[in-house]
Specification:
The structure holds two protein chains of two kinds. Chain A is mainly alpha-helical. Chain A has helices spanning about 15-25, 30-35, 40-50, 55-60, 75-80, 85-100, 105-120, 135-150, 155-170, 175-190, 215-220, 220-235, 250-255, 255-275, 285-300, 315-320, 345-350, 355-365, 395-410, 420-435, 445-450, 460-465; strands at about 210, 240, 280, 310, 340, 415-420, 440. Chain A is built from 22 helices and seven strands. Classes of the chains: A mainly alpha, B mainly alpha. At the A-B interface, helix 4, helix 6, helix 15 and helix 18 of A face helix 2, helix 3, helix 5, helix 9 and helix 12 of B. The complex binds iron/sulfur cluster (3 copies). One iron/sulfur cluster binds near residues 64, 87 and 133 of chain A.
């Protein structure tokens, strides 16, 4: 049974393996090998038997072929109503066939499944709320990705992503030492402007344990500094773990189920070790999904809840504004039309729609906040979800998909988009790059820092003394 | 003799297969739910689960009750004409109630003949619309199979034949008892087919919508006031 050196059914678990996959720029050799990768039908059958239960089987069997889900999918709309983008068609022709044939499928079919699962669905779950039976393709494509991953049919970038998590317990090569150093560096950097600002590491029993997205220490360390500044202003007793700080889980996008479990356990381990009152995640949708919404199940927690209350960043911000821990200077409120991106991961799939709107009510001068249509739990995916943002091979498909969000933003007439989600933020950035609308996009943290009233005792002292 | 058989033992068989089959369906579905694989804590939060399930089921059961239904008003109208006719007509038809009275002395509520006719015509008209929709719309055509038309035919057959039975006098193709027998047999065939085809959605709808409702009730909409806005 031919297996490639780079493209195979074995997940990346060592530094050497990772380096050799990384060295194959763009996955050229990797995808060449994929063409000859055999399907292990027996293994597929065993997996189906053990994991494909009545929910998914019933969905596949009962689908009325009514096509009502078509218009709910942004990719169908973005591709000018191409019938091959109808959610039910996409799933029936991929997972549907695997299940019907009881795993007897060939290389070509698995390759087709991979293309559809990663380039024609972002697992935004919107279609599930428009199907009369509640058939949720997002859930099923997530499952299909798992089957693809177990057979080695996974986009190159996500093979790497899964390997990163298995080796570094982070989606990028950031070690605990790198992480702690970055925290120290960021705290140092702020001393002139924010004397006494700290980023406490591994403090036990803090009120808040903060977790983030590896791209923050790796590419945007200022995001960590901003989080620290806001905790400083709010006077929070907080900490970060030296180990178990990475809240994201590319393994979820990759369909690497075992990798999901170990990533979640890593973070839950930090919670159990440091016993904070609450845990707070950064402005990231899929990180929240990984640790708070799906995580408890990966970790085998029967109540479906994480070991301590685990908030999305927006929940903390709303609370800080509500309780006056952070006060906004009314003169600095946003006085231009501004809109808000509802991330599928914590709006449709967690229900934080009112919380984000509450925040907007503090930050935006009345009359300037404009809703997108549709919005809240019925919002469209930004176009970059489910890992597609990072997959080179599907860049073209991704760019086409961005059109729906582009038109939604254009229809609001706003030039500013608030996006408290890393993935959506990236997608909107790329959207500007591709379509040049002349818009700006922002996380909440920089906005808050700009608008917050700084308590006297936190301001640098020297000037007064002179 | 033939009439006695098809309204006696065969009818019983049809009911046994229908109810028995559906019970097996429900039991298998529920037994196949797995909190960890589905990632839904089915048992841990019974109150939230029940609320979520009911909200999901009811919003979609009521005409125009969900965002999805309101988004497609024409289809929704056709859909409900079809389904209301399908359920109400056979259950409360005077002709059926008479049988119940004669055989077992049960007094069963009925609807007027006029209403029954309207509903039946509605079912048949909706069938035509649904078939045309399957052919005309590319997004429906691509998922449509021959089997879908077969099921549509199977479903509408008892209604069409029933209608022709009642209007024998005006029926140019009237043959002694033919339409009556065709009506009874197609009705029994439909009953027996339900558990074995995707028509099992007569219970499957409640299971599937309920399941997703629980998913949103205990997990995906826990922070939304009033639950997910279906
Ligand atoms: S989950 Fe989202 S992207 Fe995937 S098929 Fe459904 S609507 Fe389309
Ligand atoms: S709306 Fe639901 S039942 Fe209809 S085709 Fe889509 S998935 Fe199937
Ligand atoms: S990237 Fe944003 S909008 Fe897209 S699926 Fe993820 S959370 Fe939803």
């Amino acid at each position: 049974m031919p297996e490639g050196i780079l493209c195979n059914k074995t997940p990346v678990t060592s530094k050497e393996q990772l380096d050799s996959v990384l060295a194959d720029k763009g996955g050229k050799k990797y995808y060449e090998e994929m063409k000859r990768l055999d399907v292990d039908v027996e293994k597929l059958q065993t997996t189906l038997q053990a994991t494909c239960k009545s929910r998914i089987r019933t969905w596949l069997e009962m689908c009325a072929h009514c096509g009502l889900c078509a218009d709910s999918c942004f990719l169908y709309l973005a591709n000018r109503k191409d019938p091959t983008q109808v959610p039910s068609y996409k799933i029936l022709s991929t997972l549907g066939k695997i299940v019907k044939n009881n795993g007897n499928v060939d290389n070509a079919h698995m390759k087709y499944c991979m293309d559809v699962a990663w380039s024609k669905c972002t697992c935004c779950n919107r279609c599930g709320s428009f199907c009369p039976y509640g058939i949720d393709m997002g859930v099923m494509f997530g499952y299909l990705r798992g089957l693809c991953f177990s057979q080695g049919f996974v986009p190159w970038e996500l093979k790497i992503g899964s390997g990163m998590h298995r080796i570094f317990k982070a989606q990028m090569d950031v070690t605990p030492e790198d992480w702690v150093e970055t925290c120290e560096w960021m705290a140092d950097e702020q001393q002139d402007e924010w004397p006494g600002l700290e980023i406490p590491v591994d403090k036990e029993g803090a009120d808040i344990l903060y977790t983030c997205n590896a791209r923050e220490p790796k590419h945007y360390p200022e995001d960590i500094a901003e989080a620290a500044i806001l905790f400083h202003i709010a006077g929070e007793n907080w900490t970060v773990p030296s180990e178990g700080w990475e809240q994201t889980c590319l393994t979820l996008f990759a369909g690497d189920w075992a990798g999901c479990k170990s990533q979640v356990e890593n973070v839950y381990g930090a919670i159990e070790r440091l016993k904070p009152k609450r845990v707070l995640g950064t402005e990231c949708g899929h990180a929240h999904r990984c640790m708070v919404i799906e995580g408890p199940y990966w970790a085998g927690r029967a109540d479906g809840r994480p070991p301590a209350p685990y908030l999305h960043y927006t929940e903390w911000v709303a609370e800080a504004l509500r309780t006056g821990k952070i006060k906004i200077d009314p003169a600095k409120r946003i006085k231009e039309p501004v809109t808000l991106q509802d991330s599928c991961n914590y709006i449709r799939n967690y229900g934080l729609k009112d919380v984000t709107r509450e925040i907007m009510s503090y930050l935006v001068e009345p009359g300037y906040f404009v809703e997108m249509t549709p919005n809240k739990e019925h919002n469209f995916c930004c176009g970059g979800g489910g890992g597609i943002n990072g997959i080179g091979m599907y860049r073209q498909q991704r760019n086409v998909g961005l059109k729906v969000k582009r038109d939604q933003i254009l229809a609001t007439g706003c030039k500013l988009v608030v996006s408290p989600c890393h993935n959506c933020w990236d997608a909107i950035r790329d959207l500007e790059e591709v379509y040049e609308l002349g818009i700006k996009w922002t996380f909440l943290k920089p906005l808050l820092i700009k608008m917050a009233i700084i308590p006297e005792h936190l301001k640098p002292k020297e000037e007064e003394e002179e | 003799m033939f009439y006695q058989f098809i309204t006696g033992p065969l009818l019983w068989l049809a009911f046994i297969v229908f109810f028995g089959g559906l019970i097996v369906r429900v039991v298998n579905y529920i037994r196949g739910l797995d909190w960890q694989l589905d990632r839904v804590a089915y048992r841990a939060h019974p109150g939230m689960a029940l609320k979520g399930a009911l909200s999901s089921i009811i919003h979609w059961l009521v005409p125009f009750g969900s965002v999805g239904w309101r988004f497609k008003p024409i289809y929704t109208f056709i859909f409900f004409v079809f389904h209301i006719g399908l359920v109400v007509t056979p259950l409360f038809l005077e002709g059926h109630a008479v049988l119940l009275k004669e055989r077992w002395g049960i007094n069963w509520p009925t609807i007027s003949m006029g209403l029954a006719d309207t509903l039946t015509i509605g079912v048949m008209a909706a069938t035509v619309c649904i078939a045309i929709r399957r052919i005309a719309l590319p997004e429906v055509r691509i998922v449509t199979t021959f089997y879908d038309y077969f099921l549509l035919l199977l479903t509408v057959a008892p209604f069409a034949t029933g209608f022709l039975t009642v209007y024998q006098a005006h029926n140019p193709w009237a043959i002694q008892d033919f339409w009556l027998y065709a009506h009874i047999l197609s009705g029994e065939l439909l009953l027996m087919a339900i558990p074995f085809t995707k028509l099992f959605h007569v219970v499957g709808y409640f299971l599937s919508r309920g399941q997703l409702g629980v998913d949103f009730g205990v997990k995906r909409a826990i922070k939304a006031k009033g639950g997910f806005a279906w």
